[in-house]
Structure formats: structure tokens, C-alpha cells
Amino acid sequence: MNSPVDPDESSAVVFRLAFVPGTTPGKWVRIFGERHPNVRLDLVPTAVADTAAALINRSVDIAITRLPDALSHADLGPHHIIALYEETTVAVMGKDSVLTAGDELSRADLADENLLWPLDEPLVVTERPGNAVDHRPETTADAIELVASGMGVVLVPQSLARLHHRRDLDYRPVTDVPTSTVGLLWPQPTSDLAAEFIGIVRGRKATSSRGTSEPPPKRSAKEKAAAKRASREAAGTIPTRGKAKARKTRRSR
């Protein structure tokens, strides 16, 4: 027997946000929840390679992903992107690797190394350095495990190296390979809730005219003139009404 469905739950407005590993949308999610308590925000963990497909089939409304990598796996059609920040690319290797001798690496340093390229492709590198390992692990997490076993090296955005940190591994920045751009990706047209979330990410205040809060009512010409006069009186540039009346009375005497 099926359990009864809460009518409030079934009728709730849902906004679905995809996010890729290594990104941290927590602050924006919290603010969105404070401003829209009647909207259920679902967080959907999504691989970079699956982001465009999730947006195409409308299983998510907007995505925090890596660009342009997410667009290389499916044709999203008309869409919008906003770049948020750049991530350094690092090489993850065993703690005892000779690659840990320096503070940073170049492509030339990786020329003789075996490199793993996971199928979830957190980073697209068209001209790949080193020797590609024939086996392609399913995920970045799997690739990290293989690095720990001594199979090779993997290039990833720095946040993923931190996410999958292990005591037996280390990483170094690679200076002359593509970096990763984290950004927002969503299809056209932009929904109202997507516009709200974009505004939050951009730092728009709740009282902004683009937000859901009502803008302050427009003042009449009379009210504007009165406010202007009050401001000038406070600054001492014109006499107050009482002083002006007293001066007029003294002159009439």
C-alpha cells in the first residue's frame, strides 16, 4: 500500500540546482531559501560530462559547472553562461613521486609520465601531455584511487585535488595547461526562479528592483520639492520656515 502524499509536498514549487564536485553552492542556497521559503530547492550532484544532458531533459533548472567543458558533451541549444571564477589545474601524484621536488610543473615535466583521463572529464585538455593510460576510469574519484596505487598521474582542477585528498598523495600546479572556469549554465528562456538565483550569485540584494521585494512607491512632485527643501534646510543653505517668517515680521515693523 502506498503511503499518502502530503498535499503541501506534492504542490510545492521546486527549483533544481545541479552542481559538480568541488563547487560549493551552500551560501547561495541558504540565501535563496531565506528569500523564497515557499520554494523547495533540490541540490542535484552532477558530473561535468552530464551537465548539458541534465539541462536538456529538464531534470535540473540551472547548473554550477565547469566551462566550456560541460558544453562539449551535448548540444544544449540556446543557452546562457556566467563565468564565476578560474581554477588552477594541478597534477595529482604519489607522495614519493619525483614530481613533488618542485613547487610547480610544466608540460615538459609530465612528458615521460603515464596520465589517467577519467570519463567524467572534469578538465578538457586537447593536447594531452605525457603517455595516456589505455584504461579510462569512470570517475575522477576512481582515477585518484589508481594514482594512489601507482598507475600514473591525473590532471584535475585544484578543488578536486583537495576534495579527494589522501595522505599518500600530493599535487602540484601545472603552469602551461588549460585552466578550469566554474560558472553558471542554463537554457533559454530564463525562468523567474533562475533569474532570482542568478541575482543572488551576483550579489544582488533582496531590496533590488530586480528582486521579488516591492520597489518603493514613486513620490509626487510636491513630495520631492518638500524633501529637497528639508534637505537644504538641514544643510543650512536656506533659512527654516520659522526663521524666514520672523525676519519678514521684523521687516514689516
Automatic annotation (TrEMBL):
Disordered as annotated region, ranges: 204-253
Range of residues in the leader sequence: none
Keyword tags: Activator, DNA-binding, Transcription, Transcription regulation
Comp. bias intervals (Basic and acidic residues): 216-232
Pfam families in UniProt: LysR_substrate
The family this protein is said to belong to: Belongs to the LysR transcriptional regulatory family.
The protein, known as: LysR family transcriptional regulator
